[in-house]
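Example with several molecule types.
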Amino acid sequence: MSDCDRAQELIPWYVAGSLSEEETGELAMHLAECDACRAELARLVPLSLDLHAALGSLPGAAAELRETVIGRTRVGGTAGINVGSFLLGLSMGLSARGRGAPLQGDLKILGRRVPLFRLEQGGKNRE
Amino acid sequence: MDERDLLARVASGDEAAFLRFYDLYADRVHRFALTILRARHLAEEVVQETMVAVWKGAQRFRGASKVSTWVFGIARNQALGLLRKESRAAREVLPPLVEPDPADAIGRQQRVLAALDTLPEEHRAVVFLAFYEGLPYREIATALGIPEGTVKSRMYHAKRGLLEKLK
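Resulting structure tokens for the full complex:
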């Protein structure tokens, strides 16, 4: 591989900011004496910035997806439904943890959870 | 708390840590998947499956790579799985990331995305991980499960293609 081929290989990683110190030094030595590779570097710097901006303009994950993932990661753990008023900071939740596990209800007021009831297997109400 | 500590907490079953981790990565994984798959419903599926896999498998992270390398490796595998599921015909009608509109004020970004869209999927993945995530080629090789030389080769061709399209 010629010095220019090697430099062409390293330049994209240099402009992306991820080249090792050692490789950066190697590239700098070559760039100091090669017009063609400096020209390549000059072409790639704006491309790198454009790519970062363009890829960052792609939409992020939808807000609803967070709830879906939370629900899925509680499979075998807690599954529940919540209803309430965001404005009043009030919500009610109903949840169950695992098969045959207790069913419990709670009221959430301004972020504080107040247990309302807990049903053990067989329907015995403990609260 | 750094990402490794956060992931260790996720591995211990800390739900709050998992939500922080989700917030740290969901948008980035979505953009990555969108770059590869070019379809929002598929990108959402990748985010879901990746995050569920993180929750279930955080204890399998051994620390040999960056956390982001590990996460994007999972996302890449999920995306590949979806690509395999999609029929070839269905893939061909997937819409491009954007319709180029050179007269638009944000035309530059659109032109860049449109140029990116002309590259093969495996080249787009390398471009995203290099220029958006800033991952070194060694980490990208790990994330994508390919040799470092292949990463460099894909970058070389991607760069050529992009410069040609954006002339």
